[in-house]
């Protein structure tokens, strides 16, 4: 049985439990998302030198009667006296759930069991996670801070209570530790003030110490903590009565898997170095909940592809653009790199994570793009955690989305880290005291916005009436995106001719464009109005489709699935095939023409349309 050890307020004063909660601030993200981000980052930072990978697991369980008995009688003694929490009440709840956050392949929570003891090897992770408040890490390229990151575990718990179980090494020996903790309100007992922080373990003359060794292993087994294999180190944190945010347990586990995808994906991508990707799993009552593939959650795969093109030296697509973000004075320095890529708008996956788009009071979705087009830059630095999806201009064509990734240069990682709040979900220059660092941060954010605005913030004006060349029409039709200057096999569109008063030519006008999924295919559709030349009874149209290289080049060979699917005028279909076709429109009246091309949806389609007076001209 563990002893209850409430923290007495020192004579010199100290941090109250209420102040402990304020360390986290007011994150804009859902608490379960913050939990995934912070605990996963802490686990990643705790990997030992030379480790190939880390395993990060989440397990949501309904508490059995046996577990509830152990919690009530062996762990949380005197729960009724823990002011400011619902601990005593939730332990009697028939629907009590626990959420266990685990890692393996880490060092575990190493270091001395007390905060005042100096570690001979500099490791104080047990004290920082279990005892200290707001103790930041100092290692380079780390994301979490144990003092801040652990706070979210208490916030998520409706009882503000957790149980910590860790296997680690201390003074050259493997050791198992177990302790429970809760954060409540200040209270008075026996004429003394108490901070509102509580532990259950071994009372070391007022200092909370963990149960260790065989006793700890036996208690962990009765609690149903995930086991350690021979020689395995790591940590389990059991969150008592997690607040699922109005979600059912099934919806909550789905939300957790989706949060892993949308916020940890840079850690899940294969790396160029010898470190393997983060291995994640989610379970619900012991049943594995699959983590979906990137490609099944549009537009996530586009951010992943941009990251691989930008950081990992992958062969970039022709529509991918990379540019350095630089500081010129006092000397030229590359602060990071920005990569952006456009793509045809993709249909979103239907995910039951508790969000109802028709109910404003429903929980938020895990995906930032459930109800909107992607027009964002994922901000990253050394820890490879998505800091934020920074919004930019929406692509002028509604059939287009774009994704970007900015990766800060490692030598400036500390500057970006200092601009982050405790939840690491933004870069705020105003929170940085150093003037030079503040200017660097402002320049980076400003230059990112300038770069994406240059690419998508404006749209070219439509061609003037009478300009019917391929270039003029193609720039306006379909979901054309300006990519890299003509590369590969792209052919240049014909220049816009200067209309002559004596030259009677047909006129073309863009009506609109869409992208749809039809029979599993991406179908790009462009709608144009064709007006015959004066005095002409027919109009000949030459129609080609390709992949856009820039504003005047296209290459059909880049997408083997690309082909004309349908061309119709005023509801009448024409026989078309391949990537080139010619049709003749009969009559002297304006006709509406619909062009359709099937394609992979991975790149941007460009239409090449040329109109001339057809057979039967009257002049």
How does this structure look, described?
The protein is of the alpha+beta class and 619 residues long. It is 21% helix and 31% strand. The chain has helices at 17-22, 31-45, 65-75, 87-90, 125-131, 146-149, 151-156, 213-223, 249-268, 300-311, 413-418, 435-456, 470-476; strands at 3-8, 55-62, 97-104, 161-170, 173-183, 187-189, 192-204, 207-209, 211-212, 234-240, 279-284, 287-289, 321-327, 333-344, 375-380, 388-391, 400-408, 491-492, 507-518, 521-531, 538-550, 553-555, 563-569, 572-574, 580-586, 591-599, 605-613. Strand 19 (507-518) and strand 20 (521-531) form a beta hairpin. It is elongated. Residues 136-147 and 459-502 have low confidence and may be disordered.
Compact overview of the structure:
This is ATP-binding protein. The protein is of the alpha+beta class.
């Amino acid at each position: 049985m563990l002893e209850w050890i409430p923290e007495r307020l020192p004579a010199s004063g100290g941090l109250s439990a209420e102040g402990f909660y304020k360390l986290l601030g007011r994150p804009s993200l859902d608490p379960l998302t913050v939990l995934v981000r912070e605990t996963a980052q802490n686990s990643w930072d705790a990997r030992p030198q030379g480790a190939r990978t880390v395993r990060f697991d989440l397990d949501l369980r309904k508490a059995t009667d046996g577990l509830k008995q152990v919690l009530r009688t062996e762990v949380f003694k005197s729960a009724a006296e823990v002011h400011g929490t619902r601990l005593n009440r939730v332990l009697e709840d028939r629907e009590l759930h626990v959420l266990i956050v685990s890692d393996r392949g880490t060092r575990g929570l190493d270091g001395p069991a007390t905060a005042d003891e100096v570690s001979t090897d500099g490791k104080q992770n047990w004290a920082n996670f279990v005892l200290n408040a707001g103790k930041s890490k100092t290692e380079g390229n780390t994301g979490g801070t144990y003092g801040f990151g652990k706070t979210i575990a208490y916030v998520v718990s409706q009882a503000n209570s957790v149980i910590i179980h860790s296997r680690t090494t201390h003074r050259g020996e493997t050791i198992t530790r177990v302790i429970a903790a809760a954060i409540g309100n200040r209270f008075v007992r026996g004429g003394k003030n108490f901070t509102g922080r509580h532990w259950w373990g071994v009372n070391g003359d007022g200092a909370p110490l963990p149960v260790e060794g065989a006793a700890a292993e036996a208690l962990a087994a009765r609690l149903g903590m995930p086991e350690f294999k021979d020689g395995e180190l790591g940590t389990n944190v059991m969150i008592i009565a997690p607040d699922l945010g109005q979600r059912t347990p099934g919806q909550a586990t789905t939300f957790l898997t989706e949060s892993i995808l949308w916020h940890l994906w840079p850690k899940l991508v294969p790396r160029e170095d010898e470190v393997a990707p983060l291995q994640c799993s989610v379970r619900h009552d012991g049943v594995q909940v699959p983590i979906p593939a990137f490609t099944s959650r549009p537009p996530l795969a586009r951010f992943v592809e941009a990251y691989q093109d930008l950081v990992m030296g992958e062969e970039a697509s022709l529509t991918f653009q990379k540019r350095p973000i630089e500081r010129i004075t006092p000397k030229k320095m590359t602060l990071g790199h920005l990569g952006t890529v456009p793509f045809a708008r993709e249909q979103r996956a239907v995910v039951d994570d508790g969000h109802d788009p028709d109910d404003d009071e429903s929980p938020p979705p895990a995906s930032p793009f459930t109800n909107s087009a992607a027009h964002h830059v994922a901000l990253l630095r050394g820890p490879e955690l998505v800091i934020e999806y920074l919004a930019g201009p929406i692509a002028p064509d509604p059939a287009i989305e774009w994704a970007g990734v900015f990766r800060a240069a490692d030598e400036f990682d500390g500057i970006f880290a200092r601009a982050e709040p405790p939840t690491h979900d933004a870069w705020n220059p105003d929170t940085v005291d150093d003037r030079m660092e503040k200017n660097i941060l402002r320049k980076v954010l400003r230059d990112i916005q300038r770069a994406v605005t240059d690419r998508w913030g404006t749209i070219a004006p439509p061609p003037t009436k009478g300009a019917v060349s391929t270039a003029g029409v193609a720039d306006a039709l379909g979901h054309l995106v300006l990519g890299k200057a003509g590369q590969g096999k792209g052919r240049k569109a014909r220049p816009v001719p200067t209309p002559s008063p004596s030259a009677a030519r047909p006129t073309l006008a863009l009506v609109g464009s869409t992208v749809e999924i039809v029979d599993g295919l991406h179908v790009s559709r462009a709608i144009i109005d064709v007006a015959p030349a004066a005095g002409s009874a027919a109009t000949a149209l030459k129609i080609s489709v390709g992949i856009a290289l820039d504003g005047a080049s296209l290459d059909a060979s880049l997408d083997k699935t690309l082909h004309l699917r349908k061309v119709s005028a005023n509801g009448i279909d024409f026989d078309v095939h391949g990537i080139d076709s010619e049709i003749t429109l009969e009559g002297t009246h304006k006709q509406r023409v619909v062009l359709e091309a099937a394609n992979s949806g991975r790149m941007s389609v460009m239409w090449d349309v040329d109109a001339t007076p057809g057979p039967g001209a009257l002049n």
